[in-house]
Amino acid sequence: MTATSDAATDRDEQRPEIGRARLRREDARALTGRTRWTDDMTLPGMVHLSVLRSPVAHATITTLDTAPAARAPGVVGVWTGEDLPEQGAMPTAWTVSEDMKTPPYFPLSVGAVKHVGDIVAVVAAISKEAAEDALELIDVDYDELPVVVDPLAAKQEGSPLVHPDLGTNVCATWGLDSVSLGTGGDAAAAIREAESDPDQVVVRRTLRQNRITPAYIEPRSIVVDPTAEQVTMWSATQVPHIVRILMAMSQPIEEHELRVVAPDVGGGFGGKLQFTREEALVLLIARRLRVPCKYTETRSESMQSSHHARDQVQELTLAAKRDGTITALDVDLTADMGAYLGILTAGIPLLGGFMFTGIYRIPAYTFHCTDVFTNKTMTDAYRGAGKPEATFGIERMMDELAVELDLDPIEVRRRNWITPDEFPYATAAGLTYDSGNYDQATDKALEMFGYDELRAEQRRRREARDPVQLGIGVCTFVELSGLAPSRVLGGLNYGSGGWEHSSIRMLPTGKVEVVAGTTSHGQGHATAFSQIVADELGVPFDDIVLISGDTASSHKGMDTYGSRSLVVGGMAIVGAARKVVEKARPIAAHLLEASTDDLEFVGGRFSVRGTASGVTIQEVMLSTWLAHDLPEGLEPNLDADFTFDPENFSYPTGTHLAAVEVDTQTGRVTVRDYVCVQDVGVLVNPMIVDGQVHGGLTQGIAQALYEEIQYSQEGQLTSGTLADYLVPAAPDVLRYRTGTTVTEATTNTLGVKAVGETGATAAPPAIVNAVLDALRPLGVTDITMPCTPVKVWTAIHEASARTTEGAVTA
Amino acid sequence: MARITVDVDGMSYTHDVEPRTLLVHHLRETLGKTGTVVGCDTSNCGACTVLVDGESIKSCSVLAVQADGAEIETVEGLAAADGTMHPVQQAFHEHHGLQCGYCTPGMLMRSVCFVRENPDPSEDEVREGLKGNMCRCTGYQGIVSAVMAYSQAAGEQEAGR
Fold first, then answer.
1. Half-sphere exposure in the Cβ direction for A531 (13 Å, CA)
2. How far apart are CA A730 and CA A510, in angstroms?
3. Distance from A668 to chain B by nearest Cα, in Å?
4. Among all residues of chain A, which has the CA nearest to that of B40?
5. Do B101 and A264 touch (CB under 8 A)?
6. A495 three-class SS
7. Exposure check for chain B: N or C terminus, fewer CB within 10 A?
8. Which residues form the 2Fe-2S ferredoxin-type domain (chain B) (predicted)?
9. Could you say which of A298, A522, A727 has the minimum Cβ distance to residue B101?
10. pLDDT, tens digit (0-9, with 9 covering 90-100), for B42-78
11. Which residue of A has its CA nearest to B107?
């Protein structure tokens, strides 16, 4: 049974803060320039590091002479991989299969380079300028080797090998199928049957996911102070706890010797969830020099060396009956790892493996994935991590099926999606969706969009052969968010738990410190988490402060990625708050000379049922701190720790509709309207939710229309700055129209789902479906992202040439 | 080395600088004015935007020596001495015009200059006016709303004078 939005409203009296669009308390510092980014830090005696990066994609290093650089003015030291015998191999947390190939990957490369931007040497100097000047004096000769950049080519016999010692470019293969899982039928057999059945259709397509990069605006920066008993590292990271653990597991430092702090962090989107070789290098050099060291990447370095994402070839086969009912789905995926493995690299495509079935009843499913190495920067998580890729695959295929059967793309979806009475629903991919109402969200979106009117306009413009054609695109999606449960992650060899931790400490004056294991880089944790605690403890919002992002004060946590801060971290906070209330209850009863059974706790106050007698939790706190009159055996103070490990993922859903105008004479695509109706469960702060949706949509639209990391055949990065990698600016996007439906999550007591990744997940297929919808009458049947003017123009002209040839030969 | 004097947020600073020093590095590293930040090395992102003699410029595209004698305004000088936020700051706060806040100093300074040049802009004009400043978090919707609201507030203040 799925709760409706009315049920959510009923709870509001009990929860005055949840659902309130509170302005963010984080804003004031950022608005006045009083933030502290890592690069803002200067410590006494600090030296600056710069690194030498490979200008070639694949080579053996034959000469590497650092002596002239070491003698340059202001230089404190220069090191190559051979000069740093203590450096440990960078760890890969996620080993997806027992025979997965893990190539050697060190903070400083030893003897060879594998992609443009690979690190060859590091210089320490009294200023950044002096360090950069010295880089130019390092004498390197490269013996260039054959290069492979295309993942399909990399799989072929005889392809140049990125790591010759591994004997193959195949990193790992991984699959799942509904027969082995016991969740459905045999997809291969169903597809064979469909091929010979006139009442069924089989649709096959090969789709590509363009390589893109998170492109956070704050470049990564690291400062390490080795001078105190505990070495302190400040880093522009999403994952201070994970960095600390992986540093201790891979480099010459013990966990208790290291404190990692994520101060203000300027964007992440997955781009800052890596444990980076630059972090390891700054630590290694700082410990050698025994002085604080700083490294800040330039934007060009960021484009070369912070991880990229997506970059997949998807071979999809969908079988369906003529009425549109899907009978089977087969997915064969080739995923480009780049040259090395980051902490999650090999596993990102697996996450997609669970989501290709989307919100549809698909009775038979197989997924097979091949992870391959190429001479490119490694890929890893980016907003959605595997799920946007999967959503693109299935949502493009739903449109292809609609075309094949001459059905409206909404209708073909409607005939297949899971209905509200079917929840909890076990998918063929082995997940259990807890709640959702796809009709409700879609109906609302269609109404907001004016779907029928737009279709009528589209017909008119087609008939008039308008040079600017209108296209309508749809995506009905479900996300797998809130990375946890540990038990499930264990089954995937994830290499980490998925729980989240919180401590809540009441202070003697009744104020509250909330310690969270997640860290914020713009998501408004301090505001949203305080709203949650205000409702749980019944204390004023302004009496609460959030402490996070520092392993010294927030000692346990799994950090922020995969939209887990609220659905996992938020629930840890709820659990800690409830423990505080339970700890206060017997003390309140003692103070009120009542039995705990007679007490109720409402709005921050314990009162004896049916009487005016009561005491606030803040008064209870003061009394426990004084500890003069505590019940026998009770511990003073009100604080509690709680670790939450959910029983399931979180499944936000929604319907996105895009209207695009395609100028057939120039190839330019303009998004005219974009409507999305999201179901992210209960909204804690609708303003923050909207902001997350807008940002995600913009990144998703950018993947569809603007952004692509490009390499030449020689492995040269040809989109290595923000001048040629097109991050959209304000005129490139539009005002989005958003709506909400609420089906509460049943897997957490707040009823919340996740929101951070939904926009980036749903927008690419919505936009590409719209572009193709505009162009199909011209004979265009596919286009790869990004749909740039030149690509659209070329597709139109190639289709037109095909039609002409066809006419001639006929 | 060249001796330069700049007035930053109402304080005068005289220093010897290397001729190659960019204004943004002079502000951040020599003067400790870290409110202005660096996002790219191609003058695309606009995070380092400040006002030089009233004009919004990307401080990574100007040498410090070129700013000799100039009056520079940064995000750190926007709020009143008593801490009261400038109307542009208030508008960004009320319209959720920031998330991580890294692009915010540049956005605010560009917005101040833009609204001075175009006191009654349309939404499209606001978007065009901000095209040199990148935000990766907000999708611009909150920022555009903030600048529209700020222009209205600034216009009303002007009319009330």
1. 24
2. 45
3. 18
4. A299
5. yes
6. coil
7. C
8. 2-78
9. A522
10. 999 999 999 999 999 999 999 999 999 999 999 999 9
11. A31
